UniProtKB/TrEMBL annotation:
<keyword id="KW-0472">Membrane</keyword>
<feature type="binding site" description="axial binding residue">
    <location>
        <position position="80"/>
    </location>
    <ligand>
        <name>heme b</name>
    </ligand>
</feature>
<feature type="binding site">
    <location>
        <position position="92"/>
    </location>
    <ligand>
        <name>a ubiquinone</name>
    </ligand>
</feature>
<keyword id="KW-1133">Transmembrane helix</keyword>
<keyword id="KW-0999">Mitochondrion inner membrane</keyword>
<dbReference type="InterPro" id="IPR034804">
    <property type="entry name" value="SQR/QFR_C/D"/>
</dbReference>
<keyword id="KW-0813">Transport</keyword>
<comment type="function">
    <text>Membrane-anchoring subunit of succinate dehydrogenase (SDH) that is involved in complex II of the mitochondrial electron transport chain and is responsible for transferring electrons from succinate to ubiquinone (coenzyme Q).</text>
</comment>
<feature type="coiled-coil region">
    <location>
        <begin position="181"/>
        <end position="222"/>
    </location>
</feature>
<keyword id="KW-0249">Electron transport</keyword>
<keyword id="KW-0175">Coiled coil</keyword>
<dbReference type="GO" id="GO:0005743">
    <property type="term" value="C:mitochondrial inner membrane"/>
</dbReference>
<dbReference type="GO" id="GO:0020037">
    <property type="term" value="F:heme binding"/>
</dbReference>
<dbReference type="InterPro" id="IPR007992">
    <property type="entry name" value="CybS"/>
</dbReference>
<feature type="transmembrane region" description="Helical">
    <location>
        <begin position="108"/>
        <end position="126"/>
    </location>
</feature>
<keyword id="KW-0408">Iron</keyword>
<keyword id="KW-0349">Heme</keyword>
């Protein structure tokens, strides 16, 4: 009797809390990101394109100097620099840390600085010798270590100078004179190239003007003949 009661009160196998099987859903299609088609992806792609374009634009601008290549280099450099500084402002000048005013002022200042830089570069390109030629002249200037001196400067007679110091000063003056002569020669060469280019453009315009005059004369003759008939 006792054994029957014990078996009757014993828990059944189905009543034990078995752990539930672990299930996981696996998607066969690639997930779609919310920013995949937004402006961030387009801007990132454009930044990479500009960075790769600079690898070809900068050497081409120095090998074949022209206003078109200088303009492309100026726009690419300004955009590349602006995007980099804008990313730093966005990362470090956050509204939650510095407030809402300073980020707006920083972005506005960056925009004005970028426009001013681009305007200055375009002025150098279209009203002077251009970016590439300016860098070449600056390199020549630094290479020869040209120093402009005050012509009104008079050395004090009380200063005692030895022969070695005098020879050193004369050698430096000689080097500076040679560097200045090279600089002036390079400037003259650039001006001659610009003069030849302008003469060629004027000759082409003159030829076009003469052709236009000939066409107008032919049209007038045809009109007179039509009136005579």
């Amino acid at each position: 009797m006792t054994l029957q009661l014990a078996l009757r009160n014993a828990p059944r196998i189905n009543e034990f809390p078995y752990p539930q099987p672990f299930t996981r859903t696996i998607a066969l299609s690639s997930p779609r990101l919310s920013a995949a088609g937004g402006n961030h992806t387009t801007l990132w792609t454009l930044e990479r394109v500009v960075s790769l374009a600079l690898l070809g634009v900068i050497p081409a601008a120095f090998l074949v100097p022209s206003q078109t290549l200088d303009a492309l280099m100026a726009v690419s450099l300004v955009l590349h620099s602006r995007w980099g500084i804008e990313a730093m402002i966005t990362d470090y000048v956050r509204p939650g840390i510095v407030g809402n005013v300073l980020p707006k002022v920083s972005h506005a200042s960056l925009l004005l600085l970028s426009l001013a830089t681009l305007g200055g570069l375009f002025y150098l390109i279209y009203n002077d010798i251009g970016i590439a030629k300016s860098v070449k002249l600056l390199n020549l200037f630094m290479k020869n270590k040209i120093k402009y001196r005050n012509p009104k400067f008079v050395e004090s007679p009380c200063k005692v100078t030895s022969r070695s110091q005098l020879s050193t000063n004369s050698a430096r003056r000689h080097v500076s004179t040679e560097g200045l002569i090279k600089f002036l020669k390079s400037k003259i060469t650039i001006l001659e190239e610009d003069h030849d280019r302008i003469n060629q453009e004027m000759a082409e315009q003159k030829e076009l003007l003469e052709k236009a005059l000939e066409r107008s004369k032919v049209m007038e003759q045809q009109r007179d003949q039509a009136f005579m008939k």
